[in-house]
Design a protein that fits this description.
- The chain is mainly alpha-helical.
- The protein is about 50% helix and about 10% strand.
- The strands form 6 sheets. A 3-stranded antiparallel beta sheet has the order 3-11-10. A 3-stranded antiparallel beta sheet has the order 4-8-7. The protein has a 3-stranded antiparallel beta sheet with strand order 13-14-15.
- Strand 7 and strand 8 form a beta hairpin.
- Helix 7 packs antiparallel against helix 8 and helix 26 runs antiparallel to helix 27.
- The two termini are about 50 Å apart.
- This is Protein-lysine N-methyltransferase SMYD4.
- Keywords: Coiled coil, Cytoplasm, Metal-binding, Methyltransferase, Nucleus, S-adenosyl-L-methionine, Transferase, Zinc, Zinc-finger.
- It comes from Lamprotornis superbus.
- It catalyses: L-lysyl-[protein] + S-adenosyl-L-methionine = N(6)-methyl-L-lysyl-[protein] + S-adenosyl-L-homocysteine + H(+).
């Protein structure tokens, strides 16, 4: 959720429609804390732990893992119960084969005062992990401790099961010591580092780029030399990022206030955005979760000590307000106030006719550098800094008055709460970052914000408005789903094209830009903000881009709009005649068959309704797969496929998605040939829509390589691996995880005996 919740938006809309002298009083009386509570609730922890135990007994270890993490996030720090959560979670991790992480959770349980009477089973689990990790001496030491503990315990019958397991472990350990693994090379394929020469004036950029500025395109990047596909052009860590909480799901059955389903907030580290396996909860709130103690401590020192008690309000006001607050916290009040003061000076000068004639280089150092480009330092460098971020365009004049009013009220509400909660000193960097200390609420607060908080509010409003512009990074995972909202000052230099010449990938909070096609020296380097020509018609793209306050004049848009030729996207994703399967045409509510010999017509609404019903049926089939009912999922998907063939074009993207889903189901059953057959059909449709060298085709080929590898189709697997490697290395580079896996599969297949390779 980027903007405030609907209830808050509705309230501000009503206020806007009835602006009256009581505006401030009504805003002060608005309740914003009830929408998404983030305080710790021990009763919720107990409920989640019980649900986790239930899933664990059913053998659903992944579900149990998630529920134990939710329980830990609600336990009070230092309570014995939190140690039980970590110990329970370690059991799920052991069953899932995550031995290193299991050991970390066991250590957490021990450090949080795990009950001594329960310690033997945890030590046994620890020994088993060490054995699986081939740390034999450590496993032997733990077994000795365990033996002595069980001996000291007077009630031996309590530990009969554990004694049996212990003896089995000792036998295993003896076998391992007698038959050590043959020495060999460990680790993955050695990866050569990429050749990279840093730009001398643009931080994180390649030396093959240069920064330019003109009135039409603003700041933009240009190739200073010829660039080849796959060449790395830009590497940047986000100046600030905030995890999007994900969709707030309704509670099922109405029997509990606690939802067992996972959102982004449960699945990714709130600091570095890495995927979570066993989260480390914040000690102050139930919302923030981290991948390690290091991330938790760093987040607390940099911003979370201020944000922790504001969790409910921040979730209510939306990610944009959250990003704005975290931005000023990371920048520091001194830098924020300096740049806000500079903006006042600039605005004052712009009203002065004489000042308008002065060159940009005469502006204060906070503005344009010696090169006259906004955001550059006085030395002409453009860095990934708060100064560069501050100069991203807020487009204040283009935003509607209603939208600016909503943003202003939201920012003021947040600053008022900072003042009321006693957090002003922390925001102004006047308070030490004492670990896990709670702020003291002010006994009495003024109706007016302090001058310092007014400065903070002004900067925050600027940043909220900037985030309507593509200067914010939509950090995503492999699927096109927004994972976080972030500011990338250098990445923001790239202008949009619906047919870009670059590919952008994200890893945690870092963005990497690579050339996706040859770029000649002097050519502008372009990035797609979302509306790609392969996915939307020009009219739809222009409508979507209008929120960014510009009209796209890229080659793809000009060709489609000026020629008047129907978009290939419309043709490929069209409805077909239920009788003769020819394409259905028409711009009105009634569509007619394009085959003159067939006079069939159909309502657009009727066909759209069938499409929606089909999508719902596909969703139900995937739900069946998730609960292990693969055979039923196949029957439903095949039925959907037959139904789709009666009214959708054979090239429709949904036809390809169904082939992909069928491949997934057959793969779960180990039917590799069937899986490969369906995936090849999916690849054909993906290539038609996105092109043979697109990242989408690369992902599909990667899946096909895995299926062929598992199905032992050696020759075909090797050729597919080679093709997938060629495409994905352009978009993600030779050091990406997918390339590494492809190389490992290739090495494994290449080492097979020659007679097997010839047969396959």
């Amino acid at each position: 959720m980027a903007l405030p919740v609907a209830e808050w938006q509705g309230r501000t809309a009503r206020l806007w429609a009835a602006l009256d002298p009581a505006l401030r009083e009504r805003l002060a009386a608005a309740s914003l804390h009830d929408a998404a509570p983030t305080d710790k609730k021990p009763e919720a922890a107990s409920w989640y732990r019980e649900q986790g135990n239930r899933e664990f007994k059913r053998g659903q270890y992944q579900a149990a893992l998630r529920l134990y993490s939710k329980a830990a996030s609600h336990e009070l720090p230092g309570s014995p119960e939190v140690s039980v959560c970590f110990a329970n979670r370690s059991a799920a991790l052991l069953h899932l084969g995550h031995f290193e992480v299991c050991l970390e959770d066991i250590a957490r349980a021990e450090s949080h005062g795990y009950p001594d009477r329960l310690l033997p089973k945890v030590l046994l689990r620890k020994a088993e992990c060490l054995l699986c990790l081939e740390r034999f001496q450590d496993a032997q030491d733990i077994l000795r401790v365990l033996e002595s503990k069980i001996t000291l315990d007077g009630v031996m019958t309590t530990h009969l099961t554990r004694l049996k397991k212990l003896s089995q472990l000792k036998v295993k350990l003896g076998e391992k010591e007698r038959c050590p693994e043959p020495a060999g090379e460990r680790g993955g394929i050695q990866r050569e580092p990429e050749i990279w020469e840093e730009n001398s004036s643009i931080s994180g950029a390649s030396s093959s780029l240069s920064l330019s500025f003109d009135a039409e395109r603003g700041r933009h990047l240009v190739a200073s030399q010829d660039i080849v596909p796959g060449q790395s052009l830009l590497k940047e860590e986000a100046f600030v990022s905030v995890l999007c909480p994900g969709e707030s799901l309704p509670v099922q059955d109405g029997d509990t206030a606690w939802d067992t389903r996972a959102t982004n907030a449960d699945l990714y580290c709130h600091h570095c955005l890495r995927q979570l396996l066993a989260s480390v909860p914040c000690q102050g709130c139930s919302y923030a979760k981290y991948c390690s103690q290091g991330c938790a401590e760093m987040a607390w020192q940099q911003y979370h000590r201020t944000e922790c008690s504001l969790g409910a309000l921040l979730l209510t006001l939306g990610v944009f307000c959250h990003v704005a607050l975290r931005t000023v916290l990371l920048a520091g009040f001194a830098e924020v106030s300096r740049l806000v003061a500079w903006s006042h000076h600039r605005d004052k000068n712009l009203q002065n006719p004489e000042a308008k004639c002065k060159p940009l280089s005469e502006a204060p150092a906070a503005g344009a550098g010696s090169r006259g480009i906004p955001g550059c330092g006085s030395n002409g460098w453009y860095q990934s800094s708060y100064q560069a971020l501050f100069h991203l365009l807020p487009h204040t004049e283009q935003h509607s008055p209603e939208h600016k009013f909503l943003c202003t009220l939201s920012v003021v509400a947040l600053c008022k709460q900072l003042q009321a909660a006693g957090l002003e000193a922390a925001v102004l960097n006047q308070e030490s970052s004492q670990q896990w200390s709670k702020p003291k609420a002010c006994e009495k607060t003024s109706d007016e914000l302090s001058p310092e908080l007014k400065t903070v509010a002004e900067a925050m409003l600027r940043h909220v408005l900037q985030l309507q512009w593509p200067g914010d990074g939509a950090v995503v995972d492999k699927k096109p789903v927004r994972l976080a909202t972030a500011f990338f000052p250098v990445l923001s230099l790239l202008n949009h094209s619906c047919c870009p010449n670059t590919s952008v990938s994200f890893s945690g909070t870092a963005a990497t830009v690579r050339a996706s096609q040859p770029i000649s020296s002097g050519q502008e380097v372009l990035h797609c903000y979302g509306p790609h020509w392969c996915r939307m018609r020009a009219a739809e793209r222009q409508q979507l881009l209008s929120q960014y306050f510009f009209e796209c004049h890229c080659q793809a848009c000009l060709e489609e709009l000026e020629s008047g030729v129907k978009s290939v996207v419309s043709i490929r994703n069209s409805f077909c005649c239920p009788k003769c399967q020819a394409q259905m045409k028409g711009e009105e509510d009634t569509l007619c068959c394009s085959n003159e010999a067939c006079a069939t017509s159909a309502s657009r609404d009727h066909l759209s309704g069938r499409l929606q019903d089909l999508q719902q049926q596909i969703k139900k089939a995937l739900d069946l797969l998730r609960v292990g009912k693969a055979d039923q999922a196949i029957k439903m998907l095949l039925k959907c496929q037959m139904d789709a063939g009666t009214f959708l074009s054979p090239e429709h993207l949904l036809m390809g998605e169904m082939e992909d889903h069928l491949a997934q189901v057959y793969a779960t059953l180990g039917k590799w040939q069937e899986a490969a057959r369906h995936l090849k059909k999916s690849i054909e449709i993906v290539e038609i829509h996105h092109g043979p060298s697109s990242v989408e085709t690369g992902h599909e080929l990667f899946k096909l390589a895995q299926i062929l590898f598992n199905g032992f189709a050696v020759s075909e697997a090797l050729s597919t691996i080679q093709r997938a490697e060629g495409i994905l290395s352009v978009h993600f580079g030779p050091q990406s995880a997918q390339i590494q896996e492809l190389q490992e599969m290739k090495a494994c297949l290449s080492q097979l005996p020659r007679n097997i390779l010839q047969r396959t």
